UniProtKB/TrEMBL annotation:
Gene3D superfamilies: 2.40.30.170, 2.40.420.20, 2.40.50.100, Helix hairpin bin. Residues 1-20 form the signal peptide. This is Efflux RND transporter periplasmic adaptor subunit. It comes from Desulforamulus aquiferis. InterPro entries: Beta-barrel_RND_2 (IPR058792), MdtA-like_BSH (IPR058625), RND_pump_MFP (IPR006143), YknX-like_C (IPR058637). One of its GO terms (molecular function) is efflux transmembrane transporter activity. Coiled coil: none annotated. Keywords: Signal. Residues 60-199 form the Multidrug resistance protein MdtA-like barrel-sandwich hybrid domain. It holds the Pfam family YknX_C.
Length: 367
């Protein structure tokens, strides 16, 4: 009977015991501060210098003819792609071609006449040579035949040289009426129409692959960049696409009182999406370090002259003093204090100290 009384008493006390334990757990959870953490990793970091630039053609050529005349045919319009050596337009050259053919005919006849005279002189010399060896003619007659042969040979050679030289000149005159593109590119200007007289600049051809970013850097930066350096370029064309370029030109002569230096950066543009006149954001990499710890700048707390972060070890917050290194795009290098693999508090660090109870609610990555 006594045993039953104890059992009844224990049964009545159990709800009170469970309620007390539950209340204690809730109180402990209420004291725990939620935090987000990130595993510290090493990476390659760089410090950028930002400036603005503008896109330009890498090559621009004005096309015109040495000859003046009436435009006969035009084969391309603005915006058309052209290849080096393709005919852009022609001048009316019918009369010129007739004159050229007539002149070439006269030159050919002069060479043919000289050739016939050389043949006759050579035949005469050989006959006189036989007679001289047979002592049938004098030395004087022999010498006269040799002199005539040598003169005929010289006249023939001169006639050939004159023909070849004049052929080049005549062909050049015709070629001046058939105007071809000197480069691969795109027609940016067409200033002529069939039936008009040609101008001083009939076509403008631009090369847009690669395309060039023209920008300027200050005197404190000019000696920190080199030809071939890789540069990040963001084109402000609506979507702000990112491109990789290379420094292709550094002007050593400053402008604007000598403290601004023009720099050019080449970007591949095989699809011709990038156009001259577009604005660009240019980022020069000035400092670069590998295997470095980099954390979000916002995770660093400051009290007086002290800068520190919190890491979580065995579910306990630890305060770690840090010094800032290279800062770039919201991240900062930490040369000392943190190690790869540490769990860095990235959210909620303002509300904790080394005596706080914490609950990790999310694990984020640097990327």
């Amino acid at each position: 009977m006594k045993t039953n009384k104890w059992l009844i008493l224990i049964f009545l006390l159990l709800p009170l015991i469970f309620t007390a334990c539950s209340t204690k757990t809730v109180e402990e959870d209420a004291k725990s501060i939620p935090v987000e953490v990130m595993k510290v990793e090493t990476t390659t970091i760089a410090k950028d210098h930002y400036t603005m630039g503008k896109l330009s053609a890498s090559e621009e050529v004005n096309v015109s003819s040495q000859a003046r005349g009436t435009v006969k045919n035009v084969y391309f319009n603005e915006g058309n792609r052209v290849s080096k050596g393709v005919t852009l337009y022609t001048l009316d050259n019918g009369d010129l071609i007739n004159d050229v053919n007539l002149s070439k005919g006269k030159l050919d006849k002069a060479v043919e006449d000289a050739k016939l005279k050389l043949h006759d002189a050579q035949t005469n010399f050989k006959n006189n040579e036989i007679l001289y060896q047979a002592e049938a003619i004098s030395r004087s007659n022999y010498d006269q035949a040799l002199l005539a042969y040598n003169q005929a040979k010289l006249n023939y050679e001169l006639a050939e040289k004159e023909r070849d030289l004049n052929y080049k000149s005549l062909d050049a005159a015709v070629n001046d009426t058939i105007i071809k593109s000197p480069i691969d590119g795109i027609v940016s200007q067409r200033n002529i129409q069939p039936g008009e007289m040609n101008t001083t600049v009939d076509f403008v051809i631009v090369n847009l692959s690669p395309i060039v970013v023209k920008t300027n850097v200050s005197e404190d930066l000019i000696n920190r960049i080199s030809l071939g350096d890789e540069v990040k370029v963001i084109i402000q064309s609506g979507s702000k696409d990112e491109y990789s370029g290379k420094v292709s030109s550094i002007n050593p002569v400053g402008v604007n009182n000598g403290n601004i230096y023009p720099v050019e950066i080449q970007i591949a543009n095989d699809d011709f999406i990038l156009k001259p006149g577009m604005f660009a954001e240019v980022y020069f990499k000035l400092e670069k370090a590998e295997n470095q710890i980099q954390i979000p700048n916002k995770t660093i707390l400051t009290r007086g002259n002290e800068q520190y972060v919190y890491i979580i070890k065995d579910n306990i917050p630890l305060k770690v003093p840090v010094q800032k290194g290279i800062t770039n795009n919201g991240f900062v290098q930490i040369p000392e204090g943190l190690r790869e693999g540490d769990l860095l508090v990235v959210k909620g660090q303002e509300y904790i100290n080394e005596n706080s109870q914490v609950t990790i609610i999310n694990n984020v990555s640097l990327s």
